[in-house]
Design goal:
Shape: globular
Strand order of the largest sheet: 1-2-6-3-5-4
Number of strands: 12
CATH class of the largest domain: Alpha Beta
Helix content: 40-55%
Order of helices and strands: EEEHHEEHHHHHEHEEHHEEHHHHHEHEH
CATH architecture of the largest domain: 2-Layer Sandwich
Number of helices: 17
Largest sheet: 6 strands, mixed
CATH topology of the largest domain: Cytochrome Bc1 Complex, Chain A, domain 1
């Protein structure tokens, strides 16, 4: 059959999208348990989430939580590292551990009929990790080597320096999860073991299960485990409000670099505040997608970069707005002018057309966030971490659709503030110094990357 491609296909009827239901079990002094049934495949996915991110790293030991996350699966119970890995592989189970600024998360995905055996291994990692010195030293060397390698990565240098300078050194979020060279150097295996006992085991935690398993069998399996792991608060985070800064421009030298990494932005409101929906739509218009103002300006109109983006980066207790891109070093000043132009212009507001397009983009792609077991687990994990309401996902599309143009324009003037912008450039300092005259982008300060964390 010949298709007439000049004729637009008829629009399909609106597809129904039903969010996965979840049950929540809140028992006294034990981790919260979340269960989301999903029966289309014989798979179960488990996330164990514990308040043990890098914001809990002690002073002088930045990177401790990440090092624990790397050591905790290097053998557990009677199994050494290789035996534990083989045991998961024999069951066809995928297992991983990650740490970020707020939490450590252990993830398991397995076939339904292998869940009992795989979950027993999962529990051993959580409750009985070996944490022996040989494995600790190996993982510590990996991190030390990686930190040296990252010093040659302009993208890492720019991100790390920007977050440090935006949050400021007394804020735990100022430091990258991987830690610092000096911090890692002084960490011992005893520090890791103590941190495991005092922070990991005693931290507020949650168990999230997504998959094809009867609810009564699941609860029986995790009941004893959850009661063994009594939950208490270790959330000793003390928010350190950053100083409101005037514009500053920091230049980090990367000699002979032909490109400049650009980061600019400032502190913003947190994830669970009411302005989130309007800010989300605002950022899509400004720099959150390919057709955004910033990307169309720097990439399509001027050809300065392959891509430029903006975004609100959320941690549990603090957040920031930032713009990031990489440009040819000779176009650094022109690019900064265009970025600042767009940030100032957005203060004047957005249009109905832009708002409608942004809403359509968010709502139409929303169901794709729940396609797989991993998608569902990741989204509900964020709900737990950011302490979002139980009906958050049910109301998300409705709340996005109900945001008014006026609300977005209020955020355009409230949430984007060029006058407080901290800008970081990573590139050849000599060339940048000659190119950027005066204080057009704020007070110009030259710094060495290592000096930031000393």
């Amino acid at each position: 059959m010949e298709i007439n491609r000049r004729q637009r296909p008829e629009t399909a009827e609106k597809a129904d999208f039903i969010l996965p239901a979840f049950s929540k079990y809140k028992l006294e002094n034990v981790p919260d348990i979340y269960f989301i049934p999903k029966h289309d495949l014989p798979i179960v996915r488990a996330h164990f989430i514990v308040n043990n991110g890098s914001r809990f790293d002690p002073l002088g030991m930045k990177g401790l939580s990440n090092l624990l996350s790397m050591c905790i699966d290097e053998g557990a119970g009677k199994l050494d590292s290789l035996q534990l890995s083989d045991a998961f592989d024999i069951l066809g189970a995928n297992f991983s551990v990650t740490a970020n600024s707020d939490v450590t998360m252990l993830k398991l995905q397995t076939l339904s009929d292998k869940f009992d055996a795989a979950f027993n291994l999962f529990k051993d990692v959580i409750l009985s990790p070996n944490l022996n010195e040989k494995d600790f030293l190996r993982e510590k060397r990996k991190i030390a080597t990686r930190l040296i390698q990252l010093e040659d990565d302009p993208d890492y240098l720019a991100n790390s320096a920007f977050e440090f300078l935006v949050y400021e050194k007394n804020n735990p979020y100022a430091y990258q999860t991987i830690g610092t060279k000096e911090g890692i150097k002084d960490i011992s295996v005893e520090n890791v073991r103590d941190f495991y006992q005092n922070n990991f085991l005693r931290g507020n935690s949650a168990i999230l299960i997504v998959g094809n398993i009867p609810e009564d069998i699941l609860l029986k399996q995790i009941d004893e485990f959850s009661r063994t792991l009594k939950s208490s608060s270790n959330d000793h985070f003390a928010q350190v409000p950053p100083t409101i800064l005037k514009q500053k421009l920091f230049i980090i030298n990367k000699k002979d670099s032909v490109q400049t990494e650009i980061r600019t932005g400032h502190i913003s409101s947190k994830r669970n505040e009411k302005d989130y929906y309007a800010k989300n739509l605002l950022n899509i218009i400004l720099g959150g997608q390919f057709s955004s103002r910033i990307n169309l300006n720097l990439r399509e109109k001027n050809g300065y970069t392959y891509g430029a983006r903006s975004g609100f980066t959320y941690n549990k207790e603090a957040s920031y707005f930032g713009v990031s891109t990489s440009v040819g070093i000779d176009k650094t000043t022109d690019s900064l002018r265009e970025i600042f132009f767009e940030l100032k212009k957005i203060n004047e507001g957005v249009t109905e057309e832009e708002t409608g397009f942004a809403k359509s983009s968010v709502i139409k792609r929303y169901p794709s966030n729940f396609e797989t077991f991993g998608h569902i687990a990741a989204n509900y994990s964020n709900k737990i971490i950011y302490e979002l309401p139980d009906n958050y996902f049910d109301l998300y599309a409705v709340k996005i659709n109900n945001v008014t143009l006026n609300e977005i324009n209020i955020q355009a003037s409230k949430s984007i503030n060029v006058d407080n912008a901290t800008t970081v450039l990573v590139g050849d300092a000599e060339k940048l110094d000659k190119q950027i005259n005066g204080d057009e982008f704020g007070e110009k300060i030259f710094i060495e990357f290592d000096e930031l964390f000393s």
